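Posted in: Protein Modeling Q&A

I'm a second-year student putting together a small comparison for a lab meeting, and my supervisor asked me to include a predicted structure for SDR family NAD(P)-dependent oxidoreductase. I've never done this before, so apologies if this is the wrong subforum. The sequence is pasted below exactly as I got it from our records. If anyone can share the structure token output, I'd also love a short note on what stands out.
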Amino acid sequence: MLGRRRVLAHATTLCIAGLATSVIPQTLLAAAVGDDTSTATKKRIFITGSTTGLGQMAARLLVEQGHRVVLHGRSPASAQKALQEIPGAEAALHGDFESLEQIKDLARQANAIGPFDSILHNAGLGDDETSRVLTNDGLPRLFSINVLAPYVLTALIQKPQRLIYMTSGMQQSADGKTALDDPLWAKRSWSGSGAYSETKLLLSMLAFTVARSWSTVRSNTVEPGWVPTRMGGPSASDDLNQGHLTQAWLAVSDQPAALVSGRNFYHMNRKRSNPDAGDESMQNRLIALCTQLSGTPFPG
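Accepted answer (user: helix_wrangler)
Welcome! Here is the predicted structure, written out as tokens:
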């Protein structure tokens, strides 16, 4: 037990010192994630998009640590499959993020079995959309899944203590004004990578709006890196084994470094976000847009 404590303390020191994660062994990173929570303080976490990839990996880690985890799949069948693959999970909800009706129903499901200590907004679509595919609601699928769904769930689910939004390093290159002037790509020639980058910037704006507006909620973003998941593809160069650790740590850890709000993280360290994500006037434009498109106001 003493040796375990030493490993945890060493990992915490490395994180606080801000050293690059490439010099931190995977075992130390894993030891830093959530292991400081006692049995009495185990958390209840809802993770969207937890049937595969990083969402499933984070869910499995948190279940193994003794936390109560609720999964999410796109359909009842995928939700049931997620439960079979992580049998220690508490439950699995379902909802297709291409449908506003189903997104709102997912919020109702979550509230029916809530509340949660933490919600991890992990579900998302990648940058390989070759055309502007519209949902039945008339919205670009990429925008509906990556921006509007997390907005609606944030607005409708009872406030947790912590919110974590999975963004991307690609948001760093997006321009907030351009993204808000034409968020649905109705005026521009489609670019899958450009649209994806903008959705991740808008998602960061949402996270930092929450951090600014809700003093009782810790809201942060995580860049997992380019990892070889189904979304990232086999040529992704970052370490898959590190891709899920930071969000799991933020969801449950009582370490001071995790008890912050309005911050962006990459591999257990703070990373500067796109400055537009913290621009209050742009945040207000985003909230107005999402309210209009979803019919769901942002609660104060």
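A couple of things worth pointing out for your meeting: Residues 40-294 form a domain with the Rossmann fold fold (CATH 3.40.50.720). The chain has ten helices and eight strands.
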